[in-house]
Write a structure and sequence with these properties.
Number of strands: 12
Largest sheet: 9 strands, mixed
Distance between the termini: 161 Å
Structural class: alpha+beta
Number of helices: 3
Order of helices and strands: HHHEEEEEEEEEEEE
Length: 305
């Protein structure tokens, strides 16, 4: 039997420590592998907004686009060019039937008319009665006036409406005051003369708007409401129509090919009104043959002198 000595004791101690280290390390690894791990929370999914279908931009209905004075003058110019050249009206122009329009025609720009005046479009302020008297007579074109065929054939078509003065400008206000030697009547004359008109056409089976009956009104007004040099405005609203041959414009050259064509734009009037640009008020409105005078007494319907 070997006696224990110092060397053997040291070796035994070192071996025991080594075994303890190995066993402890293995236990740590086993414990770490079996212990529950901390689970990281799952990332919250980001909600994707649903795709919104973008509406296709809709184009306005051409029938709802309001034609202005400039548009109507351009229409008459195109028709005059086609007529003088012996060509048909361009398709895009011929397709304007049914489109809306609004037109203002200034009148009485030189001031009030005399008491006995027979001017077709006039106004006069009555100081004693404190009343504004207005008279507007439409122009009536007979079948002879509208004859455009070279064989001179007659037609039952008639038209009633108004000349568009100064068709070289889109302005709807009175021109600057200046002297003029040009005739100011309603009859079409040559050099100078009226060349563009707007009217409602009818035939023997149709009904004219007013049979030439004037638009007249008497409206109470203070002296400072008199139109002055701004005149009054005849406001016409409706839709572009068609002549007997379904064309939106009728042109003719009664004096021959050297004359500028006289053209009448065919329309259907929805209403006719008289506006006072001095006050911004509408003096009277007619739909068909009836006058509507808002905020006026029955005495305001008296005939204009």
């Amino acid at each position: 039997m070997n006696e224990p000595n110092l060397r053997n004791s040291r070796l035994a101690l070192a071996g025991g420590l080594a075994i303890a280290v190995v066993v402890g390390g293995a236990g740590f690894l086993v414990g770490r592998g079996t212990s529950p791990r901390e689970i990281e929370p799952a990332a919250t999914p980001v909600a994707t907004p649903p795709a919104v279908a973008q509406p296709t931009p809709s184009l306005p209905d051409p029938r709802d686009i309001i034609k202005t004075r400039a548009d109507l003058i351009a229409l008459a110019s195109q028709a005059a060019d086609a007529f003088a050249s012996g060509r048909p009206l361009p398709g895009a122009t011929a397709d304007l039937a049914g489109q809306r329009f609004e037109l203002r025609l200034p009148f009485g720009c030189r001031g009030p008319s005399d008491a006995g005046s027979d001017s077709a479009m006039r106004w006069r302020y009555d100081d004693d009665a404190k009343a504004l008297r207005v008279h507007v007579s439409p122009v009536v074109w007979s079948s002879d006036d509208l004859r455009t065929s070279t064989d001179g054939s007659a037609s039952d078509a008639m038209a009633e409406g108004f000349w568009i003065p100064r068709p070289w400008t889109a302005s709807e206000t009175c021109p600057p005051a200046q002297d003029s030697i040009a005739p100011t009547g309603t009859d079409a004359v040559t050099l100078p003369g009226q060349t563009v008109a707007i009217a409602q056409f009818s035939d023997s089976a149709g009904q004219r708007l007013r049979d030439g009956k004037p638009y007249e009104s008497v409206v109470r007004a203070a002296p400072d409401e008199a139109p002055g040099n701004q005149g009054l405005q005849l406001r016409l609203r409706g839709r572009i129509g068609g002549t007997a041959d379904r064309s939106p414009v009728s042109c003719r050259q009664p004096a021959g090919p050297e004359q500028r064509p006289i053209c009448i734009i065919a329309v259907t009037f929805d209403d006719v009104a008289i506006d006072n640009p001095q006050t911004g008020k509408t003096l009277a409105t007619w739909g068909g043959d009836r006058a509507n005078l808002p905020d006026r007494s029955p005495t305001d319907r008296a005939t204009v002198n």
